[in-house]
Amino acid sequence: MTARTVDAQQLATFMADVARAHGVPSKDADLLADSLLVAELWGHPSHGAIRLPWYLARLRSGAMRAQTEAVTVRDSGSVVVLDGQDGLGQVVTQRAVELGVERARVHGISAVAVRRSGHFGTAAYFTRYAAERGFVALLATNASPAMAPWGGRTKLLGTNPWSIAAPGPDGDVLVMDMANTAVARGKVYVAADRGEAIPQGWGAAADGTPTTDPREAIEGLILPVGGAKGYVMAFMFDVLAGVLTGSAFGADVVGPYRPEGASGAGHLLITLDVAAFCDREDYDARVSALAEQVRGSEPASWSAGVLTPGELEDRNRRRAEADGIPVSDQTWAELTTLADATGVALPETTAPKESS
Question: C or N terminus of the chain, fewer CB within 10 Å?
Fold first, then answer.
C-alpha cells in the first residue's frame, strides 16, 4: 500500500474548514476535527480522517444536523437525560462529559444519558477528558447492527463500544476503549480501503462462513470478541445505552456508513469524582503502585515489555506529532473530492511512499 504523510495540524485545519463549509459552527467544527485527528495520532485511523466524508454525507442528506443543540429532558441533579436532536455525536457527547464532570463534582457521582445522538468517534476521547480533570468515567454507546446474536446468523447488534478512563500516575491517564466485537468495524473498513485481507476471526460472510475478505465482512458479520461473551456484553450495553436512555436499539440504530436515516444512537456516561471516594494523594500513590507492578513485571518471550492501558496510544501520539500522519490513497482521494467541492485547500504532504 502507498501512503502520503500529512502534518497533523494541517490535517486538523483542513477537516475543520471542510466541516465549516458544510454549515457546522466554528467551535463544533474544531471539536469534530480534533476528535478525528486524535484518533489518527493514537494510531487508530479507523476512527480518523476516513470518517469525515461519511459524516459530511449525512449532513448533506439531512440525516444529521450541522447546528447541534443538546437539550435537557430530565434532570434530577446527579442524573441528567439529554436529547441530541440528531446533531453531531461528538458535540453532543462533549456536552455530556462536561455536564457529567460538573455534576459529579457536586454529587460525587453522576449519570448522563443521551438520546438521538450519532456516532461520536472514539469513546476514549471523552473519557480521557474526565480523567484529566480528576474523575473516573465510563462511557458506553450503541451502534448500527454489525454482529449476530450468539447462535444466530442475522445481523442485529452493534459493536456497542465502551471506554473507562481514570487518572493515572504522574499526571497520565489510564484508559481502555473497546468494541464488543473481535475488532472495531472501522478497522475492517480501513483494510478494505487499503486492499488488505483481514485476519481470521474478525468477520464472516452473510451466510456465517468465516472470511478474510473485508468487503464480505462489511456486508456480512463482524464476529464477537470472546465468542458468547462479546455477544452478551454487546446486548447489555445496548440495554444501557439504547433502551435505558430512550434511544434506538438493536437493528434500529443507523450508523455513519449510511448517508441517510437519523442515527438514533444513545450513550450512557457514568462519572465518579475520585475525591468523593478517597484522599487524592492516597489514590495517586495507590494507582502509581499498581502501574509500577504491571510495568515492572517480567515480559513474555514475544513481548518488548508491558504497558499500562493507554500507554501505547500516548507513545503513538508523540511519534505522529513529530513524523506526521500517513493517509492512504483512497482516503486522500476522498479528501480531494471534499476539497474540490468546498474550495478548501488540501494540506501539504510528502511524496507517497510504501507504508506497512
Answer: C
